[in-house]
């Protein structure tokens, strides 16, 4: 999916597509004139709840009301207004989890343990890459970086940019292998996310292809074997994609990649306001990789993800007046039609922006619940 700059409230588009099974990070937010604000009622006056419609910001109010048991939302507008729905419930995160890997990387750079200018052989990166399972994210990253020779090298910071901008799935596993699980847990905890369990993006994908990988340990071992054993890697790449792959997507939830809206909110806010500490600036630069051109906003940071039936987004808005708004939505169990409509329109991101920046719209959401 291309970036939809100036069109939707989205984070960069990334697809993990395995024969029609996709994982995506939405494009960048358009904060110019959110159409979802039409019909907003004065604060304290409740209008009828609109019909559920995932293709419009207003229709998402109805969707949230009808699906309160499968959607987690946390909106804090930075001015005292907030709305939370199931903020502490664990939900599938898809690529939204990569903010933790980013935080661990930034922390390691700040401590002098990693250098963003280190040259990394492309072959080291691609040991963790399973071709044709990311909707073209990895090839798009290589194209942006001008990498077209297997003997090329890239900087470590360029690799991290691919994890955030195109949502490359190999980079988080590469970083986990280099930094270790404790570094990821400590980075998450530094941002207010306790008891984080590091996932493996490669291992989870391998588990979709191979049902015999039935626990977290086996999944992690398979990822390491893929990265270190050329014969196993060649075997996996040659195996056909199972026809029932989409039906296996719920297996991903069994292998660690879950979290809550509150946990994502805490980490994104800590990076946005600098309370994360050493590494905040570098992490924030990556999340705000597209400079804001909208008056009143100094920066917009974002990272989201998607799998069939799962749509996730975390967006922070740093305003010129020093206030910071945070918005997170974690939706699961979406029907095929709703997922397709949401993924095509990205109207949920417009809904999140409007909720964070229009108190009347936020009140409409609250009224509907």
What do these coordinates show?
The protein is an alpha+beta fold and 369 residues long. The protein folds into two domains: 35-93 and 258-368, no CATH class; 116-254, no CATH class. It has helices at 57-66, 98-110, 122-126, 137-145, 156-165, 170-179, 181-190, 201-209, 216-228, 230-238, 261-273, 280-287, 336-345, 347-357, 359-368, and strands at residues 71-76, 82-85, 91-92, 119-121, 153-155, 258-259, 297-307, 310-319, 324-331. The protein is globular and about 65 Å long. It starts with 56 loop residues before the first helix and ends with a helix. The model is unreliable at 1-24 and 31-42 (pLDDT under 50). Residues 76-276 form the Beta-lactamase class A catalytic domain. This is Beta-lactamase enzyme family protein. Residues 22-50 are annotated as: Disordered.
């Amino acid at each position: 999916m291309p970036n939809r700059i100036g069109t939707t409230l989205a984070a960069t588009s990334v697809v993990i597509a395995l024969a029609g099974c996709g994982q995506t990070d939405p494009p960048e937010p358009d904060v110019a004139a959110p159409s979802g604000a039409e019909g907003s009622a004065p604060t304290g006056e409740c209008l009828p709840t609109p019909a559920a419609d995932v293709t419009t910001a207003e229709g998402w109010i109805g969707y949230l009301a009808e699906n309160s048991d499968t959607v987690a939302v946390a909106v804090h507008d930075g001015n005292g207004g907030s709305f939370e729905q199931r903020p502490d419930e664990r939900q599938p995160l898809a690529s939204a989890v990569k903010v933790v890997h980013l935080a661990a990387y930034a922390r390691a750079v700040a401590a002098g343990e990693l250098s963003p200018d280190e040259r990394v052989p492309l072959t080291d990166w691609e040991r963790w890459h399973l071709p044709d399972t990311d909707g073209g994210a990895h090839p798009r990253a290589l194209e942006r970086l001008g990498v077209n020779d297997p003997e090329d090298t890239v900087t470590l910071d360029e690799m991290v940019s691919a994890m955030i901008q195109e949502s490359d799935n190999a980079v988080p596993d590469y970083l986990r292998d280099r930094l270790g699980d404790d570094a990821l847990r400590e980075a998450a905890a530094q941002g207010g996310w306790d008891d984080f369990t590091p996932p493996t993006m490669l291992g989870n994908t391998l588990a979709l292809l191979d049902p015999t990988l039935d626990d977290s340990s086996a999944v992690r071992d398979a990822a390491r074997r893929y990265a270190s054993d050329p014969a196993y890697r060649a075997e996996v790449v040659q195996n056909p994609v199972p026809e029932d792959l989409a039906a296996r997507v719920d297996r991903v939830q069994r292998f660690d990649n879950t979290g809550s809206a509150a946990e994502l909110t805490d980490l994104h806010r800590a990076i946005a306001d600098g309370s994360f500490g050493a590494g905040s600036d570098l992490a924030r630069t990556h999340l705000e990789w597209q400079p804001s051109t909208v008056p009143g906003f100094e920066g917009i940071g974002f990272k989201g993800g998607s799998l069939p039936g799962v749509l996730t987004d975390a967006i922070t808005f740093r305003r010129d007046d020093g206030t910071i708004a945070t918005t997170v939505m974690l939706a699961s169990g979406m029907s095929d039609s709703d997922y397709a409509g949401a993924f095509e329109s990205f109207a949920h991101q417009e809904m999140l922006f409007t909720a964070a920046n229009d108190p009347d719209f936020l009140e409409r959401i609250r009224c509907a619940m």
